[in-house]
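G., the chain you wanted modeled:
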Amino acid sequence: SFGIGYSPNSWDGLLKFLKKKGFDEISLLESGLFVKSEKGSLYDRFRGRVMFPLRTERGVVVGFSGRILDSDTKDAKYINSPETVVYHKRKMAFGLDITKKQIEEKNLAILVEGEFGVISLYQLGIANVVAIKGSALTEDHIRLIKRFTDRIVLLFDGDSAGDKATRRGIEIAQSMGMDISIVRLPDDKDPDDV
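Predicted structure as tokens:
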């Protein structure tokens, strides 16, 4: 349902594949899938990660998020596509293309921080859920969600960052006329843990 995939642990696997398909370096760099090295060559941004396509509420893929598989690496746990012409993190809600109908039917959206929170709840039959891709709820997120409901539940992680995000989220959502409920999780737990 969520289009989960995998990026091989290769510096140029996707680069080679897309070059064979005829894509030029400028287009590849603008896609956000590649990074330019100090020497000027391109390499794959996502390597050795579980991949989540980031789709608009209409289901159009505009970016990706990747979670590292090797816990021993010093790389970031999650990386996302950079801002591009089509991908704007502050305007995205992961899973909304799949869950918008349930949000409308229940007249309630449960907001979590990340992809695994959405997927875990969805697997349990709680299908009116979306992720805001981190802990910063924005006015753009609220405008997007408000197209489907004016009632939200903030279900952020039980750590200090989640607490701060909840407090900021309350202010933003209230200022935009949303009906808000809060679920507080035990310390250092997230929806996927619970």
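The mean pLDDT is 93.

Shout if anything looks off.
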